[in-house]
Every structure is written in C-alpha cells, then in structure tokens.
Amino acid sequence: MKPEQITFRPAAAQDAAAIKALVRLVRINPMALDWSRFLIASAAEGQLVACGQIKPHGEGTLELASIAVHPDWRGQGLAREVIARLLAGAARPLYLTCRSELEPFYAKFGFRRLAARELTPYFRRIQKLANLFMFREGGSLSVMRLD
Asked: 115-147, pLDDT tens digit by residue?
C-alpha cells in the first residue's frame, strides 16, 4: 500500500480498541489512551496503521504522545505526518518522552532535550521511574520540549 492511500482523521469512539491494540503492539506506554485526543491514519481497507495524541497532564502541561506506526507500515513517513498534523494545532510548550536514540528524529520538528533542572515534577518522576525500571541494559528516557 502506498502512503497516498492513507486517510488521516480524528479518532472516533469505534477506534478505541484499535488504538489500544496498536499501542500495545509497538510496546509504548498504554496509559491514558483517550480516543478523543487521537489522530489516526487508516489504510484504504480501514486498518489503523498509525496514530498519535496530544495528552494533557494535571499540572497543565501538554505532551505529544502515543506515536505508533504498525510494523508493516514503517519507513513510509507516517510518523512524520501524524506528528506534523498534531503539531499544527498544538499549544506550546509541548513536551514528549522518548528513548534517547530517538532524539534526532524529534529534533527535526524543533524539540530539544531538557536538562534535569528544566523538568517539571511530572516529567522528573516519569524519567526517574523509566530509567530505573525500563532501561537497565542501556539507553535512557529523554524528555524534550518544543517552545
């Protein structure tokens, strides 16, 4: 399937299960998956092939999150397109968390890695927990921001 045969649209209630399945398939954070915040990309036959959301946090910050592309559809620019569409309407500053090796990808959109002293309490806690439990064998969780 070619990328031009992909439809991008806001998610609907009936997309909730497919969003959760895709997020779990690609092994990213499955928490706070409110379908109403998602932008999805669907193939011609209706298969969900990519998604992402802007997630609000209790402290008033917004996070670019849940960027997921089905493994069969990687390398076709779908993540870039989902991100570009989400950023077009998003308030600033906008945060994200990612594996440290993905920093160059997000830097292309203008995100920069935050130093520890710049982290909000929420992101400081998330980074500490992720680095303690998820990255025991190398790598780390980066927190980035777009101003």
From this structure: 999 999 999 998 988 887 766 666 788 999 999
- In this structure, the answer to whether residues 121 and 76 fall within a common structural domain is no
Q: How many separate domains does the chain show?
A: 2
> How far is the C-alpha of 66 from the C-alpha of 33, rounded, in Å?
8
Q: What letter represents residue 87's amino acid?
A: L
Cβ-based neighbour number of residue 60 at 10 Å: 8
Q: Are residues 124 and 79 in the same domain?
A: no
pLDDT given for residue 136 in this prediction: 60
What pLDDT, in 10s, does the model give residues 35-54? 999 999 999 888 999 999 99
Distance separating alpha carbons of residues 12 and 101, to the nearest angstrom: 32
**Shared domain check, 124 and 77:** no
What's the domain range around 23? Answer: 1-90
